[in-house]
Amino acid sequence: MPDASDVDSQVEGTAAPGYEAVVRAFAVGINDIEANGAALSVWRDGVEVVDVWAGVADHRESAPWSSDTLNVIFSSSKGLAAIVMARLEDTGRLDLRAPISDVWPEFSAHGKGAISVADVLAHRAGVSAPRDDLTLEDVLDSAQWAERIAAQEPLWEPGSGHAYHALTFGPIVQELVRRAAGRELHEIFAEEIAAPLQADATLKPGPEEAARVAHLTTSSAWNTAITNASPHDDEWIGRALTLGSAFPRPLVQGEQGFNDSRVLQAGLAVLRQDVGYMVKG
Question: Which of 5, 66, 75, 101 is catalytic?
Fold first, then answer.
């Protein structure tokens, strides 16, 4: 394929003929090439038609973004985790319609056991935020964190409403996979999902993978907006993001949050080489 640099000199990689506008739009999206970076992959009919990257992966060292730079994709990880859950059902290891108590009896505390596993995937479990403040050390061990969630009184009647389980989704699904399959979520994803697709993606990076992760930065406008919240936010929306004191409200703040290698290697974030979009022909 033609080099993307023929379209924009600041962009590396390749793009098929007819996708020049995509390359130009991608370049415009990186508003400061010396302080930011990104990658983009577009596939059509099973063929990668755009594979580009630009900018820096770490502005502190002026480290350039490369073809194997990894980045955190935040809540897109929930979709990948859900694929594992669907895989378990497809192979008879899990019933998504079964009560969660069938798989995880301890989750029944305070009337939470009747919801289905599918309710968890739909963010209807009633435990979108902790009632007690948690520290980062409290959540780095997902099994212990899952025990806390299972014992918690729900914030609303489980199954009767919906609220985004921003950070609690992960430990709940991880524990369900452990109990249903006797293995870790990241192991099944690596072996049964990523490996067959030759995808450079993981649900729990090791030290070598963590070293390839781009350093995240946020704008001052974003930090102000997310920290001050909005008139429609309430205490529980904030706690769903911070867990009390485990994370900064913007989720990234200097070396805290998802720039912390402990967070990455604990399996709280998904890493991937690029952002991909599937386009139907």
Answer: 75
